[in-house]
Specification:
The complex is a heterodimer. By secondary structure, chain A is an all-alpha fold. Chain A contains four helices and no strands. In chain B, helix 1 packs antiparallel against helix 2. Classes of the chains: A mainly alpha, B mainly alpha.
Chain lengths: 191, 190
């Protein structure tokens, strides 16, 4: 379920420990930025809304590029087994100096196809995420009730933030579970 | 998946896919009509909660999945919780006591677990889209305040209804996908 060619040129993601650190950093960053944006919106509300900028950035840029799953380019193979990355489909560019270098995020055919085991793993993880999301919804409902007890304005604000947080978490949860649980991969000899 | 459904003491054969599809369409049509009706009662303020309880009852008696009963076996594969005490005499006398189910009525085999997971994957993808739509809808009043004032729509109630519909969808969608996609079951030979 994890791509063979590391999307990061600086280090390999074959080891589970490395992947777990990456997942932890990703979630800390995403939830941290969400907290900062939410905090800013409370004290300095803008017409555009910081969450509107954060969501496309997270879903279109950060999630596919780091975790993957949505499309080619991240650590997890695309769930649908298709490569929706127009810029990555180009031929490798001929550089002026040195050998040809692959484009960042370009994936080999093996990184785009899901075999039977991958499909089973993908479905299993989604079932687990689906079950976990029920508890998350309950927790957010409790927050919503608490906010409603404080003031009606907080109720509306908490509702907006809850839906956003739910979408944000559910969008990344299956990929995170895969990266967290998948055992160490065999290192390839790259010469 | 069970091939039969017991409704008011009557056994209904649901082995044919067409019947199961009709059941799914019927359930969602009734739920949608009931949700629309609740708007006119109290704008979903109180009825929204009852609506979710009604969905749990639909799962219990028709769809299954999250509860023992209905067409789909429990997703968890766990035995339904019952007291270990002997059955009360009243239930036996009234002939309404149901003996504990056999293991094949609640335990999922490998193929059923795969189908359950595949249905959860499809439902997950669909619900994500619904969630994003609902989140975007929560921002309409911020960007189009004049439009909302003209239409005289209480936005808080609309959002509450959308959230209720999303929860209902989340509770029923995997079972509906399973019932919709599973092919005709073989008739038992006498």
């Amino acid at each position: 379920m994890i791509v063979e060619s590391s999307p990061f040129p600086w280090f390999s993601v074959a080891r589970r420990r490395t992947r777990r650190i990456l997942v932890a950093v990703y979630w800390i960053a995403v939830l941290g930025v969400f907290g900062v944006v939410q905090w800013t919106e409370i004290f300095r509300p803008s017409h555009i809304g910081g969450l509107h900028l954060l969501f496309p950035l997270q879903v279109i840029v950060f999630l596919p590029a780091i975790l993957g799953g949505v499309r080619a380019g991240g650590m997890v193979k695309p769930f649908r087994g298709v490569c929706w990355a127009p810029l990555d489909d180009r031929d490798q560019p001929q550089t002026l100096f040195g050998p040809r270098r692959p484009l960042r995020g370009s994936a080999s055919p093996a990184d785009l196809e899901l075999d039977e085991r991958d499909v089973l793993e993908r479905d299993r993880v989604h079932y687990f995420a689906y079950t976990a999301s029920r508890w998350l919804v309950l927790a957010l409902l409790a927050v919503q009730l608490g906010a409603g007890l404080m003031s009606p304005e907080w109720l509306f604000r908490a509702g907006n933030a809850s839906f956003f947080l739910l979408a944000l978490v559910l969008w990344s949860l299956p990929q995170s579970l895969i990266l967290w649980n998948e055992p160490d991969m065999e290192e390839r000899d790259e010469r | 998946m069970n091939a039969e459904l017991v409704l008011a003491g009557r056994v209904v054969d649901m082995a044919a896919r067409q019947r199961r599809r009709m059941l799914v369409v019927g359930i969602y049509a009734v739920l949608a009509a009931a949700l629309a009706g609740c708007w006119f009662v109290d704008r979903w303020q109180t009825t929204g909660v009852y609506f979710i309880f009604a969905t749990l009852a639909v799962n219990r008696f028709l769809l299954g999945g999250y509860a023992f009963g209905g067409l789909i076996k429990p997703f968890s594969g766990e035995r339904p919780k019952r007291l270990d005490m002997p059955p009360p005499f009243v239930l036996l006398a009234l002939r309404v006591y149901q003996p504990p189910p056999d293991e094949n009525h609640f335990r999922n085999d490998e193929r059923e677990i795969e189908q359950r997971n595949a249905a959860a994957y499809k439902a997950y993808q669909g619900l994500l889209m619904v969630l994003v739509f609902v989140w975007l809808a929560t921002n309409v009043h911020v960007h189009l305040p004049r439009l909302m004032e003209r239409l005289h729509i209480p936005m808080a109630n609309v959002l509450y209804g959308l959230a209720t519909a999303t929860v209902v969808l989340g509770l029923t969608l995997p079972q509906a996908i399973l019932l919709w996609t599973e092919p005709d079951m073989e008739e038992e030979q006498p």
